[in-house]
Amino acid sequence: MSTLGGSAESAAAADGRGKRRGLPFGATVYLAVVGAAAVVVALPALQDLSLETPGWTTFLLLTGCAAVAQLFTVRTKRNYAYHTTGVFLVAGALLLPAALVALMPLALRAPDWARRRVSSAVQAFNVAAYTLAVLAAYAGAHLARDLVHGERFEAAAAGAVAMALLVAVQAGISAPMVAFMRRCSLFDTGIFSTHGLTTELVLAALGVAVAGLWTGDPWLVPFALAPLLVVQRSLSVPKLEEEARIDAKTGLFNARHFNTALEGEFGRAQRFVRPLAVLMADLDLLREVNNTYGHLAGDAALDAVARVLQRELREYDVPARFGGEEFAILLPETGVDEAAEIAERIRCAVSATQITVDTAPGPIHITTSVGVAAYPTHADDGTALVHQADMAVYRAKVQGRNRVVIAGHEDAVATPRASERPRAAAIAGPLGLQVPTVGIVPLFVTVAGVLAGVAAMVLGTNQDLLGMMALVGIVALVQVLADASQGAASVSAVGLLAGAALFGPRVALPTALVACVVEWGRTRAPFARLGLDIGTLTLAALAAAGVFALPRGVLSPDAGLIAAGLLAGGVYFVIAAAGPLALAANEAGTAVWAAIRATLGWILLQDAAAGLLAGVVAVSYGAAGLWTLALIAVPLLLARATQDREAARAQRMAADLQGVVETLESRSAVLEQANDSLREHSTAMIEALTAVMDERESAGHSGEVQRLAIAIGSELRLSAPELEVLGQAALLHDVGKLAVPDSVLLKTEELTDGEWEQLREHAPEGARLVGRLAYLRDAEPAIRHHHERYDGLGYPDGLAGDEIPLGARIIHVAEATVSMLSTKPDRPTQAAVLQELRRCSGTQFCPRCVAAVEAIAGAGLLARVRKPGDLPVG
After folding, report:
1. pLDDT bracket for residue 229 (50, 70, 90)
2. Residues 282 and 323: beta-carbon distance below 8 Å
3. Who's near 237: CB < 8 A, 6+ residues apart?
4. What is the sign, positive or negative, of the torsion defined by CA atoms of 717, 721, 724, 728?
5. Where are the beta strands (DSSP E) in 389-477?
6. Interatomic CA distance for residues 684 and 688, integer angstroms
7. 405-414 burial, b if ≥16 CB within 10 A, otherwise e?
8. Residues in Cβ contact with 89 at an 8 Å cutoff, skipping those fewer than 6 apart
9. How far apart are CA 124 and CA 173, in angstroms?
């Protein structure tokens, strides 16, 4: 029985951090109403209770069994509860007098309360709900006995009414309370799910059987109750399956389930030429959170990110904890741009999240770096897709963290925030084009297709109902098998065209409906897409039926059917394939004819072949009857049989290619050596350029900023690749000043507004210069933003807080420290420099970077920072 004991007990007991809380106001009022109703209903019955009341033995046995069953509750992931108590409640309602029936709920809940000590308010509600439900079942059973005459049907009618009322009243009373507790709709409580209600009805029906055996021969009751053990185990199976694919710490899917889902979704993306995206998100500096505030704070951070993912993602996306502090997100039916938008929305939401833990003096803020990869743009298999997304995360890390980077891009992608980008529901077509599912045209296609299909069913004249039913079943079978065996296109076109040839327009809607619903069961795409698919395929099938109905002219009937099949296949292609692609291309501003020619030529051949086969089926149907329909499924089964041979051939080819790969690897090593040599020469040239730049202002300035920045980055525990990029950015942070005239750069008087604008352009200009060298592009964000202030008052983009790349924040502090040690006539003391940094911490400088400088000073490293003007150049 799914009751408040599972759904709302946990909601009332704890929030996401394990802290107890009371009932919401609405739940409190509802509890008072239900409790009062239970008292009003139960008191009249309990007035007749005494030791002479008949049925005490039966009451004790049934209540004892119910109490034991209550102890073995099965709880699902969302804390819904299933137990076998309903068996004994229904039996009690049929066997006991009203006084004992009213006493059962209080008695059966006592052991469970003694064991778990849940909220008194929750237990009171449970008792009240059970009381109202079991008394309703009792009253309904007696009313049924009074209305139904005949010993043969009286007990059955009473049992049916009792079980139905117990389940209905229990669900109807519990659902509003759960909705109050979770602040959701009645439907979202899950209490009215088909699985839950049918399970409860089956258990209640077993209670009717127990009551019947008790009346006839009580010694047979234990044999009737034996299946309860199997029922208990079977109810536990979904929970065990859920636990096998759920990460216990975050509640998200685990890596094993993610890999399974990726394999399935990638296969569908290949077969149906649809896009698929993967996001890899890695928390920034989670180790620092663990070391500073303890591992419980790190666990709270993981849980907070998991809740952000659950809130920001769509129902059919697959978020998983991939390992440690890394999350993987599978985005079906999603292209590169939409995936980048989702990634940016997640990044912003994580950055805005405040995590409160007892070990921290205030809220903890975390950030995440996200990598985006999409099929078919970045990879042609699932493993490569994850690898590309992981490499994009790596680039986001070295570019300063708290960023979104798209795979294959040499630089970071600053996607606009979700609020700045319009969102449109869409489905993907070939070349990653998005077929819109929202708008006048998709709505018209959906409505027109369904209405035309219904009209064809009503007005059609074909009476071969058995044949139509067989065809619909074969279409469903073919669509199911296509998921495991077919190439890029669905083979449902064969069934739809065969139906048009055999039965005319009357079967168009049923065949399109079953094909689309089967596919929807696998993909769980939005309902708007399901409606568009049904409408499109129905219109295509109706058009094909119209072609088959055309007069054949001078051709023989058989030749005419086959010729009509070829033409019908072409018409089907235009409506079902070319039409949606043209709509998508028009929406994206792409040339329609070019998109169709590049992607759909092979689909035209398939649809023409399907139409030809439909014509052959129509010719043969008159002679062979239903057996002719096997022609639709046979090609599919033959295709499956050839797969093993193709796989073996692919393995042999892979072995041959292995030798080629080894040769390429050896040549790649040679090229890598050449590339390293080129890098060394380029770096030497850049360093020489930096020396020339420093000669204009302060000799050795950039080198000293580099040394201090690397020391700060090491204190912040940056990885070796991050330190390498930080060193490059720190050395080249002022390279943009080469574009600033000497009259401005070396001016000793106060600069005018125009001259300040020229000087401020050195940061973005330096980023542009560095961005022209591919191996230095990871340093570009730190160079561009090294004059941003932590309070958002810096330049060039006015970023604030963690929005500023970490490398830029480090260089900002390092440059300020070096400048304070060199620009004043008298070298300030270390204490004075640290005091100034502390004063500006949180406004001009990043507090974490300032803390790192203080740690460096405590270790004596700051004293090694020399006055740049005293350093040798070159």
Report:
1. low
2. no
3. none
4. negative
5. 404-406, 426-428, 434-436
6. 6
7. bbbeeebbbe
8. 1, 66, 104, 130, 133, 134, 137, 166, 204, 207
9. 13
Position with higher pLDDT, 151 vs 761:
761
Contacts of 580 (CB under 8 A, 6+ apart): 429, 435, 532, 536
Is 449 strand, coil or helix? helix
In angstroms, the CA 325 to CA 281 distance is 8
Q: How far apart are CA 3 and CA 402, in angstroms?
A: 44
C-alpha 181/C-alpha 303 separation (Å) is 21
Pairing of strands 318-323, 253-254: parallel
Q: Are 787 and 814 in contact (CB under 8 A)?
A: no
pLDDT at 134 over 50: yes
What is the Cα–Cα distance from 617 to 625, expressed in whole angstroms? 10
Reading the block at residue 212, the tokens are 């019947």
Of the candidates 316, 247, 326, which has an alpha carbon nearest to the alpha carbon of residue 279? 326
Q: pLDDT tens across 714-762, in order?
A: 888 888 888 888 888 888 888 887 777 777 767 777 778 887 888 888 8
Residues 142-164, mean pLDDT to the nearest whole number: 82
CB-count burial class (<10 Å; 0-12, 13-18, 19+) for 122: buried
- What the block records as the tokens of 11 is 């909601």
Residue type at 826?
D
Alpha carbon separation from 180 to 121, 304, 311 (Å, rounded): 14, 23, 20
d(CA 186, CA 171): 10
Burial label, 701 (beta-carbon count in 10 A; 0-12, 13-18, 19+): buried
DSSP assignment string, 519-544 = HHHHH---HHHHHHHHHHHHHHHHHH
- Rounded-to-integer distance, Cα 833 and Cα 813, Å: 11
pLDDT the model gives residue 412: 40
Distance in angstroms (rounded) separating the CA atoms of residues 812 and 786:
5
- Give me the residue label for tokens 């730190």: 782
- Residue 827 has what DSSP assignment? P
Sorting pLDDT into bands at 50, 70 and 90, what band is 780?
A: confident
For the chain, give the longest Cα–Cα distance: 113
Own/partner contacts of 581-587, CB < 8 Å, gap of 24 or more, are 581/429, 581/430, 581/433, 581/435, 583/435, 583/436, 583/441, 583/442, 584/429, 584/433, 584/434, 584/435, 584/436, 585/433, 587/433, 587/434, 587/435, 587/436
Tokens representing residue 305 in the block: 């990110």
CA pair distance 770, 686, nearest whole angstrom: 10
Determine the pLDDT at residue 738. Answer: 75
Give the three-state DSSP class for 664.
Answer: helix
Count the Cβ atoms, other than its own, within 10 Å of residue 760.
16
Query: In the numeric block, which tokens belong to residue 487?
Result: 């190439």
Any idea what the Cα angle at residue 604 is, between residues 601 and 609, rounded to 5°?
A: 135
Q: How far apart are CA 136 and CA 165, in angstroms?
A: 6
DSSP 845: B
Q: What is the pTM of this model?
A: 0.48
Token pair 């639709």 is found at 632
Convert the pLDDT of each residue in 652-671 to its tens digit: 666 666 666 666 666 666 66
CA dist., res. 688 & res. 365, Å (int) = 41
Phi, psi at 81, each rounded to 5°: -120, 135
Percent of the chain with pLDDT over 70: 72
Q: State residue 394's pLDDT score.
A: 87
Count CB neighbours of 823 within 10 A.
Answer: 14
Smallest Cα–Cα separation from 64: which of 34, 92, 45, 36?
92
Looking from the CA of 858 toward its CB, the CA atoms found within 13 Å total 7
